[in-house]
Amino acid sequence: MKWTSPSDKELFWDGKKNKINELYITLNQITILNPIIIKLEGELITISSKGKFELLTKEDKRIFGKFSNDLLGKMKERHIGEICIFIIEEQKLFNPISNTEKHEYHLKDIKHK
Predict the structure, then answer these.
(1) Contacts for 14-23 with beta carbons within 8 Å, 24 or more apart?
(2) CATH number of the domain at 31-112, please?
């Protein structure tokens, strides 16, 4: 298999039958939990025109996430350091093989406090 990474590096993987089977088993064991909507108050730390954001909650937890293009206008109205209310969809993925949980955050709305 051959593909190009986001940094335009060409990558290659020679998938032998046993490696493909290992990958298949690993992917089938990953659990994707239903997303939940959470409401957080925090400081806007970073805004990217590429649809990424960072916030610092009142509990000093940093959250990194993405937002869709339809929120770009609203995001441009916000300022770094501004305290906002964030409506976020949180998606949890659990890999039992590595016993790790990954959280993905997608901004649904942002409001001035």
Answers:
(1) none
(2) 2.40.50.500
